[in-house]
Design brief:
Layout: E1 7-9, E2 15-17, E3 25-31, H1 40-51, E4 56-62, H2 74-85, H3 104-112, H4 123-135, E5 151-154, E6 160-164, H5 174-180
Parallel strand pairs: 3-4
Antiparallel strand pairs: 1-2, 3-5, 5-6
GO molecular function: peroxidase activity
InterPro entries: Glutathione_peroxidase, GPX_AS, GPX_CS, Thioredoxin-like_sf, Thioredoxin_domain
Organism: Paenibacillus glycanilyticus
Length: 181
């Protein structure tokens, strides 16, 4: 099994097989428009522009599961991303990414790349860990996606290589991406 076993709806409602991305290095990320991590769209777009011609695709999956930080419609999300961040990488329909209602793709991703904690030596990691510990301690249990902008790096064969948490900046993925390209 690989990520190519899954299908998802694009933000425009078209059903696609992830097999369409076979042979590409992928970053699959759950996103939100009203999150403290939303500015990561900017660096995700920079990484995409720098490496798309070498075979990188970034697949964004908006989710409203974390503090209702993606309240708009799919068209609202698409407009927001284009106007505010110039996002040109593929976006998918709003998707549940954790717990029982999670899209099968995200269940697979989190099984393949378990949660190893936040880097609490960094301020954002310390802050998110403290917030979840206090407000949503059950979120820290298991391997589910913990918050918006969790990123999964996939090799050209569809294997999950690495998980980057919300607090990991997109530019910190570049070295790992380059190794796969």
């Amino acid at each position: 099994m690989s990520v190519y076993s899954f299908e998802a709806d694009t933000i425009r409602g078209q059903r696609v097989s992830l097999e369409d991305y076979k042979g590409k290095v992928l970053v699959i990320v759950n996103t939100a428009s009203k999150c403290g991590f939303t500015p990561q769209y900017s660096d995700l777009q920079k990484v995409y522009e720098q490496y798309k011609d070498q075979g990188l695709e970034i697949l964004g999956f908006p989710s409203n599961q974390f503090g209702e930080q993606e309240p708009g419609s799919n068209s609202d999300v698409q407009e927001f991303c284009q106007i505010n961040y110039g996002v040109s990488f593929p976006l998918f329909a709003k998707t549940d990414v954790r717990e029982e209602s999670a899209h099968p793709l995200f269940k697979y991703l989190t099984e393949q790349a378990p949660f190893h904690g936040f880097d609490t030596s960094e301020p954002s990691g310390k802050m998110l860990h403290a917030f979840l510990s206090e407000k949503l301690p059950h979120y820290l249990e298991g391997n589910d996606v913990k918050w918006n902008f969790t990123k999964f790096l996939i090799d050209r064969q569809g294997n999950v290589i690495k998980r980057f948490e919300s607090t990991d900046e997109p530019l910190n993925m570049v070295e790992d991406i380059q190794k796969l390209l």
